[in-house]
Amino acid sequence: MRTADFDFCLPAELIAQIPALRRDASRLFILHRKPVRFEHRKFGDLPGYLRPGDVLVLNDSKVIPARLRGVNLNTGGQLELLLLEEVGLNDWWVMLRPAKRAREGTRIALKDPHGTVTHIQASVVEKNQEGHRRLVFEGAPNILSVIDQIGEVPLPPYIERTGTIDWKEDGERYQTVFARPAGSVAAPTAGLHFTQELLDRIRALGIEVSFLTLHVGLGTFAPVKSEDLDGHTMHEERFEISAAAARAINRAKSAGGRIVAVGTTTLRVLETIVSDPGGAVVPGSGRTCIFIYPPYGFKVVDALLTNFHLPRSTLLMLVSAFAAPGSTEGRHTILSAYGQAIQNRYRFYSYGDAMLLI
How many domains does the chain contain in total? Predict the structure, then answer.
């Protein structure tokens, strides 16, 4: 399939700039796959679409304040850093802007949110093919131990925070209520809609809630530059799933329950750790670079809760595959659903509304 097949026009005013007043007050677009039909609900209606014996699986990765500011000690130039992936203690791959000011050997002093230069410094030691820099930090036992004091929430570029506005609520709302292990540089956004109260309601209905971890990197959102999907390579991301979560999923599948994945990141892990349809989910940790697009045949996941995604993105391609597993018809279904969502003024992307595919 071609990348251009997944394009659509989205009015800029439908790109959500702030979250709903309450997490579970967002809207919920229901896509029934067989036969195809649509419903328009509120997110609080989600429990009515789940069944006793289902397992709801969520990604509990915690977003780190991965955006840092610094000054080039060689030239005095200002730099913006985005932590991408930890290589080792105080050793990270980062995205630097402007990149041309950060050749190998460049030393950078980090600044706090007030613009004051701190004692924490970094040295550029390597550059990769994507143009990212590898930095070694010093001045702190672990950069992660001080990042809450000097870092900023790494909001996506389509969420604008301009001028002198300091919207501190981003620090809370661009994070799920169940986030635990730190490591993501972008939120697993489908999980942002849940409150603890809603999760308790779901459990009370006889639905098991399980967690896995995938630390979301920028690779998930990297644009598809190739003309054909076969030419695109996904970046690797780290994941972990416990023995308890694997047992819950396998038990439900054996008993005829459904596995409901919350978010594309959760789905990608589940489809990575099983080799055959009907096979058992295996606990453990690893890395995944799975790229799912039509006509993918799903092995584990029976229903998917997700947000509305960017045109031509790998996330839109995954959702298109899920809309019609094993065929290419899902692309038409999803683009039709997105057209309905736009007509009904749904809010798109990270702080936007949700879609449930069942």
Answer: 2
